[in-house]
Amino acid sequence: MIRSRVKQSVLESARIFWVPVPLKKPFRIATMVAHQAPCVFLQLRWTDGLESWGEAAPLHSINGETGRTCFAALQDLAEWLVNQEAQPCLALLGRLMPFQHAAVSAFEMAVQDYLSQAAGLPLWRFLGPGDPDKALRTDQTISILPPPQAAEEAARIVHEGFTIIKVKLGDGVRADLARLEAIRIAVGEEVTLRVDANQAYDAIEGETLLRGLEPFGIEFIEQPVAKTDLAGMKALNDLGLVPVMADESCFSVLDGLALRGCCWGVNVKLSKSRGLAGGLAIAQLGYPSMVGGMIETRLGTTAAAHLARAHPSFQYFDLDSSLGHGADWVIGGISVRDGVVHLPDSPGLGASLDSGFLSHVAGSQVVEVRGG
Ligand SMILES: [Mg+2]
């Protein structure tokens, strides 16, 4: 019954919105300072009357994409995929645009939202058996700040009920260690600290960093070395000082296979894995895995949270990107209470955009593609 309904319905139209979302404060990581998040949304309408949503998270230092490229790529994808049924859309997305990971992930998210709505299941349940009782305890991230400000931020995060803090590194080993020391003193021993160097170091600097981090009780370090430096990553992981998690090095299952023996865990992000199915495929490799985000609003983060619940490999959660946004136009979606992410119970993604956001978007940043 459900299958025949899905089969008879085709993609009728797509609307694409490029929405620069303001940040509460500038966010600095190794190679850039961001003042806004260039989010791109996709709204699909299907001939059975259902409507579904996706979001692309372009971050040029990670996936090589920008708001402009995602906006253009989604327009092309829509022109190719209108008039298709949902399952053929998914199959085609696996072959189209091999380097536009964020744009493809937005389209895949919107098709999976549609399919799970049509099946009457929350997206996580549609994707896999999942675990309804799994607590999605997220960290909150501190960008590269001077030690006193980083310590102040850490105290604020703990006051908000979070028990895990992720700290961005990459300011030079001495500065990074000074920041970690200030944060550890500010929050005490009970708070979990994980760090992310975003490819800032080589293996020699990385070893100095890891030896310096030892007294601070670090849970794991993300991507200490360049994404292609698997030998450096292995050398650092083999030290046994701090477990090494691959992020920029791991976009796909093939990347995950190449990383065998080089790292302890992997960070899966929808805008790297080309969507939910790609994320699940990486999870099946069995690494201790994190579901992370980059610049997503609560809409994209809701999809990531569904993925997190769908597979047992996902044990670590970095779903805080929308907490730094200065505007929120998402209806439904996740809520975060005391550091724990709560998912909506409704069928599908359970998140959409309020039309109010349209007044913040230039006419040239909205486009509609209709079938015929
Ligand atoms: Mg990272």
Précis, in short:
The protein has 14 helices and 17 strands. The chain is α/β, with parallel strands linked by helices and 372 residues long. The structure holds magnesium ion.
Would you write up a description of this structure?
The protein is an alpha/beta fold and about 375 residues long. The chain has two domains: about 140 residues, Enolase-like, N-terminal domain (Enolase-like, domain 1); about 230 residues, Enolase-like C-terminal domain (TIM Barrel), CATH 3.20.20.120. It contains 14 helices and 17 strands. Strand 5, helix 7 and strand 6 form a beta-alpha-beta unit. Helix 9 packs parallel to helix 10. It is globular and about 65 Å long. The site of magnesium ion has 6 residues, from loops.
Tally of discrete structural domains: 2
Could you tell me the radius of gyration in angstroms?
A: 20 Å
CATH architecture of the largest domain: Alpha-Beta Barrel
Bound small-molecule species:
magnesium ion
Q: Total helix count?
A: 14
Ranges where pLDDT stays below 50 over 5 or more residues in a row are 1-6
Q: Residue-averaged pLDDT, rounded? A: 94
| Strand order across the largest sheet | 5-6-7-8-9-10-11-12
Largest sheet: 8 strands, parallel
The CATH topology of the largest domain turns out to be: TIM Barrel
β-strand number: 17
Distinctive features:
372 residues, alpha/beta, Enolase-like, domain 1, TIM Barrel, 2 domains, eight-stranded parallel sheet, four-stranded antiparallel sheet, 14 helices, 24% strand, globular, disordered N terminus, binds magnesium ion
